[in-house]
User: What shape does this take?
Amino acid sequence: MAPVKTLLIINGPNLAMLGKREPEIYGRETYDDLQTFCRSEAQKRGYLTEIFQSNSEGEIVTRLNRAMDGKYCGIIINPAAYTHYSYAIYDALLMLSVPKIEVHLSNIYKRESFRSNSVTAQACDRQVYGRGLEGYADAMDLIIHILEQRAREEAHR
Ligand code: DQA
Assistant: This one.
């Protein structure tokens, strides 16, 4: 069977407002720009993407639960404000064994103090922040790196 080569990209609340939303923090690129960027960066690396945005915690949890069917080789998630308090998203991430990378467009460590705490990152392999849209490409490289590392470990067993 051919290996799964699809990445699931999840974006949380208010991220559909990119471009209009505090551009001095999040940049002038729109959510459409973000999706185009992700598709093209994934394609360069030989991956397909499914991109999902929701303002609702429950919808994000349901989307992650559906990812249990093994359709994806990795997950990139920007849980937005849910990052800082959603144990439901944390739990949903925890049960997935594919590489999971948390992304933030802004540098959450140089803003209000509540943003420095990420509940959801504790269920992810790595976190990327403060790189704008490029952070999503960085997350793809990290997923590829983790997958290669796991394949090497598997080969040595
Ligand atoms: C964000 C950072 C969060 O603190 C914030 O609530 C967001 C966006 C980011 O991408 O920088 O909505 O996740």
About this structure: The chain has one domain: 6-155. The longest strand covers residues 6-11. Helices lie at 23-26, 31-44, 57-66, 87-94, 134-155. The mean pLDDT is 96.
